[in-house]
Every structure is written in structure tokens, then in C-alpha cells.
Amino acid sequence: MLDIRVENLRKQFGSVVAVDDLTLTFPAGTTTCLLGPSGCGKTTLMRMIAGLELPTQGEIFFGTQRVTHLSTYARKIGMVFQYPVVYRGSNVRANIELPLRAEKLSPAERTRRTEEVLDLLEMRHAADADIEDLDNGTRQKVAVARAVARQPQIILFDEPITNVDISAKLQLKRALKELVTRLNQTILYVTHDQTEAMTLADQIALMKEGRIVQYAAPRELYDRPNDVFGGWFLGNPGMNFIEGFAQANLTEIIRSPLFAQPVCLSTPSSSPLTLGIRPEHVRIFPTAQPDTVPARIASRAIVVGGQYLVTLRVGPFSLKAKVAPEIGHTLAEEVWAQLPLDRITLFGTDGHKPNIALQTTC
Ligand code: ATP
Hints:
The structure is a single chain. By secondary structure, the protein is of the alpha+beta class. The chain folds into two domains: 4-223, P-loop containing nucleotide triphosphate hydrolases (Rossmann fold); 237-359, CATH 2.40.50.140. It has ten helices and 20 strands. The strands form five sheets. The chain has a six-stranded mixed sheet, with helices on both faces. A five-stranded antiparallel sheet has the order 14-18-15-16-17. Helix 3 packs across helix 4 (107-120) and helix 5 packs parallel to helix 6 (166-182). It is globular and about 75 Å long. The mean pLDDT is 93. Adenosine-5'-triphosphate binds next to strand 2 and helix 1.
């Protein structure tokens, strides 16, 4: 197994800085999703790692080998692109086997590897099907199977699900999840779809404007974003933010309509703080409970899974909350809200998370 290390990696197209001085190791044998909005530099980073783009500056290592200037072929990686690359005019088995012939493997070894990936991707029933007769989701599975059968130490996926028909997306995503769990290769996977990244990744590299904002396990990134951007980008909708929740150098007790009790900061802050909380962590009750404050439902809409997305007015603040269907439809306009302190993240004016929490023991 090989790790991938980039050091001070930068790519500039004219005045556009696509990748900005990145230094990071993608650990051997893990799956990392490069996640971020359009134009943040995901594809450029992957293309440099693949050898399809030369860095303006910096180095790339596979294990201890410096590969910065090696050709794509010499890097011996597997790649799966947005559009399935398949050999037309032949069947699935032949598609998987063809690159193995180029590697001069014995017929027995070629057959063994082909049968193995057919099983791994549950494609045995389609092994003799002509590529022309397959939908593009199954063709993409063939492209994945071909990359995997070569047994490269590193596999790069560039948004492999994006251009697959909606009907085949879920099935392909399930197949990829099963695959990345079972493979020991180092996998980099570009996506702008947070659900895909949350499902597939061991680690997510969240990118913004050519930089990696946070590199963490999906749950960690979701629950403890270290930057306002992570709170906003992840989640549907993203975090609620209340700017100027605490002012600079505030050490005294904070009395806020958001909390039933006074709260204070665990450490004094040198800059004003923004409070962040995810909609699903705002709790709503029909009657007063310990630690709840009065709130009013301003709007309510049904979202995925029958959940209710509710806009709450709490004092002068507006907050989004997600509640279960059985609660959502019974709530009257006047309700009680609770913001658990352990679900709150504070951010400084620079957007970063300082090591400060809210507490009730002041
Ligand atoms: P998307 O999800 O839309 O593919 P991305 O996160 O993969 O976006 P990149 O495609 O890496 O982002 O692009 C990063 C920036 O670099 C963008 O501003 C893009 O316009 C610019 N860029 C990428 N390739 C080139 C190129 N060949 N020439 C000029 N600018 C480029």
C-alpha cells in the first residue's frame, strides 16, 4: 500500500490559482473524497496526482517515490472518469481483461482477476453482455472493474456517478461503497455531492478556493466543522449562524433569548464570536420543558424522509430546525425550543473555530 503526499503543491492558470500551496498526506489504504463546490480545485488536484497536469510548483510522492514529473502511464494508477471509458464492440468480460493482456499477465491470472472483480462488483450475470446493450450505470461499473482488475496501488475516481442515469445512481453508489470497503488500495475520489462523500469516504478533504479547509472523517467534519464554510457547505440546509453572538473580550455572563439560563464562554475571546448550530440539533417541544425557551413557528415545509424543516423565531433570531414527521405536523405555532450547548460550535471573525465552548457554570 502507498500513501500519496503532496508538498507545497500549486497550480496556476494565468491569474487563476486553482490549487494553492497544498501540503497533505492521503494515508495508504484509505479512501479520501475531495469535496467542494464547483471551481474549488478538486479536479486540478486530482489531475496533477494523475500526471495529467503539471504543477506550477511543489512535489507529489507515492510512498517514497517522487512522481511529480512522471507520465500518467509510469505512475501505474487506476483511473475512473465522469464518462465511462469502455471498449465498444466487445463484451463485459473482454473489457475487463483487455488491459491485463497489455500487462502480459498469464491467461490463468487474467481469468482469475477478471472473475474476482466480476464477483466484487456483482456483475457475473452481465459478464457476456455486449457493452452496447448496457445502460451507462452498468458501463461505468465495467470501467470501475477494469481499473480495479489491474490491481494498481492507487485508484483515482473523478465524479464517476455524476453522469449516470438517476435510476442507476443508487445502485452504482452501493457498488462503489462495497468496493471501497473491501479494497486495500489508496483511493482518491472527487465529488461535489456531500452525500456521496459522507457515504464513501474514510476521510473527506473539504476544499474551498484551492485550499483544503479541513481534512477529517465524515462524522467529525459534519459534527465539528473547524470553519464556517464546513458548517455552511455540509448539511441540507447547512448550519444556522448567529453572528455577533458574543462580543470581543467578553468574560461576563451572556443572557440570550436562545437560552433558558445565562451562559458564558469557557475562555475569553479576542474577537466577536458567531454561534453555529445544525437544524437537526435544534429541538422543539409543544410544551415548556427544562432548558427550553419560547419560540414561534414562522414556516414549515416537508423535506426528504417526511421530515419537517421549520423556521423558528426565537426572540430577535431566526433559526431553521428539522423535526420528525410525527412531531412536525402536530406542532402549533407557539412552541418551545432548546439549543443543546454540546451541539453548538463557535466561530471567530476569521471563520475559524477557536477552542472556546459555551457553558452554564459561569
Ligand atoms: P468542478 O466541480 O466544476 O469540476 P473543480 O472543483 O474540480 O470544479 P477545477 O476544475 O479544478 O475545480 O477548477 C479550479 C479553477 O481552475 C477554476 O477556476 C477553473 O476555471 C480553473 N481551471 C481549471 N482548469 C483550467 C484550465 N485548463 N485553464 C484555465 N483555467 C482552468
